[in-house]
């Protein structure tokens, strides 16, 4: 990609997302290209303006109910990249991702419940989320679930 700046790539991805959203607004949407663009936009947006435009495009894409986009939008709100940092909105989008059966959202919420970050600590809820994500093939969640169970057994022995 020599000769093309990351800033230019972000502008192209943003334009592509906006085109995809506008051209499919009244029909069934193939969300794969929108998801891919949101994923790339998170990494290529370099200026504050690009971050804001990228976040706006991803939030608009979330209206298509792609669970993977919900996860990205949750991350945007959690980190404040392109939007005001807002834990409630981050949790909303991750919970929506869980409702739509996204294992990454399940894993993120599982970790939040396990640590008690932004919510009351609830290791049982964390286990449920990790178990659901693992059932969908998320190996990281399976490992986290195994570790959580192992830690509980060690605590009972002590």
Give a structural overview:
By secondary structure, the protein is mainly alpha-helical. It has 2 domains: about 1-85, no CATH class; about 100-158, no CATH class. Helices cover about 75% and strands about 0% of the residues. The protein contains 8 helices and no strands. It has helices spanning about 5-25, 30-45, 50-60, 65-80, 85-100, 105-115, 125-135, 140-155. Helix 2 packs parallel to helix 4. Mean pLDDT is about 80; it is low at about 10-30. Pfam families: Sel1 (PF08238). Keywords: Signal. It comes from Nitrogeniibacter mangrovi.
Keywords:
single chain, 158 residues, mainly alpha, 2 domains, 8 helices, 74% helix
- On the 0 to 100 scale, the average pLDDT is 80
Largest sheet: none
Shape: elongated
- Kindly report how far apart the N and C termini lie: 57 Å
| Relative helix content | over 70%
Number of helices: 8
So what's the oligomer here?
A: single chain
Number of strands: 0
Domain module count? 2
Order of helices and strands: HHHHHHHH
Radius of gyration: 18 Å
Strand content: under 5%
Query: pLDDT under 50 segments (min length 5)?
Result: 8-28
In terms of structural class, how would the helical and strand content be classed? Answer: mainly alpha
Protein name: Sel1 repeat family protein
InterPro entries: Mitotic_Regulator, Sel1-like, TPR-like_helical_dom_sf
Keywords: Signal
Signal peptide: 1-27
């Amino acid at each position: 990609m020599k000769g093309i700046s990351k800033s230019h790539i972000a502008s192209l991805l943003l334009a592509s997302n906006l085109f995809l959203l506008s051209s499919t607004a009244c029909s069934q949407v193939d969300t794969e290209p929108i998801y891919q663009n949101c994923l790339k936009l998170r990494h290529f947006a370099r200026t504050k303006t690009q971050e804001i435009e990228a976040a706006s495009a991803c939030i608009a894409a979330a209206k298509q109910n792609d669970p993977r986009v919900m996860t990205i939008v949750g991350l945007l709100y959690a980190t404040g990249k392109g939007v005001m940092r807002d834990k409630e909105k981050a949790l909303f989008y991750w919970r929506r991702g869980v409702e739509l059966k996204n294992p990454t959202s399940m894993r993120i919420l599982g970790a939040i419940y396990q640590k008690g970050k932004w919510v009351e600590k609830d290791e049982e809820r964390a286990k449920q989320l990790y178990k659901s994500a693992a059932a969908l093939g998320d190996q990281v969640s399976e490992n986290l679930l195994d570790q959580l169970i192992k830690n509980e057994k060690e605590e009972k022995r002590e």
